[in-house]
Design goal:
This protein is mainly α. The protein has a domain at 7-116: Serine Threonine Protein Phosphatase 5, Tetratricopeptide repeat. It contains eight helices and two strands. Strand 1 and strand 2 form a beta hairpin. Helix 3 (59-71) runs parallel beside helix 5 (95-111), helix 4 (75-88) runs antiparallel to helix 5 and helix 5 packs antiparallel against helix 6 (115-125). The longest helix is centred in the N-terminal third of the chain and has 21 residues, at 34-54.
Length: 163
């Protein structure tokens, strides 16, 4: 598979690549700036859709499109893209990027309000090498909607450092 060339303005772990517009949308969302988030995610979606059009069966590109659609409130599109990405690149096919996609599918579920699916996904992902860490689940803002749920807290506790 050919990795997308997003130039020097891209970032992300391994095959998962985000554009600057995605980052701007993500941070605007965190700040509660919905207008900037919508504008940035809309720009990011146009960029990402071109990548997906060029490589429609490439899981890393699809999972990023799913995240963008989740950020835009396009729930059905986000779920379809995220699930397809997970089907295209399972752990059995790629243990590194498959783990990233599993984590990001949980984020999509959380962002679109599918709390039960998000927690179920995290339950499967939590102890996979490359899965979410204790610190990520404790601190990263994408999990905010899950905090306080006893099922989520149990996952976090299971990853806590042992003395």
């Amino acid at each position: 598979m050919i990795l997308p060339d997003l130039g020097e303005n891209s970032y992300g772990p391994d095959a998962i690549r985000y554009t600057r517009a995605f980052g701007e949308g993500f941070f605007a969302r965190l700040k509660g700036d919905t207008l900037t988030a919508q504008a940035s995610f809309t720009k990011a979606r146009a960029e990402q859709q071109q990548i997906v059009n060029a490589q429609p069966d490439y899981g890393p590109a699809l999972i990023v499109l799913g995240l963008i659609d989740a950020g835009l409130g396009r729930k059905d599109d986000a779920l379809r893209e995220g699930r397809r990405a997970a089907d295209l690149m399972p752990l059995s096919k790629d243990s590194i990027n498959g783990a990233h996609i599993m984590n990001l599918l949980a984020v999509i579920y959380a962002w679109v309000g599918e709390k039960d699916f998000a927690i179920d996904q995290l339950t499967r992902t939590a102890h996979v090498p490359g899965g979410p860490t204790y610190g990520q689940l404790q601190l990263f803002p994408q999990w905010e909607s899950l905090r306080g749920d006893p099922r989520f807290e149990k996952i976090v506790a299971s990853l806590a450092p042992k003395e």
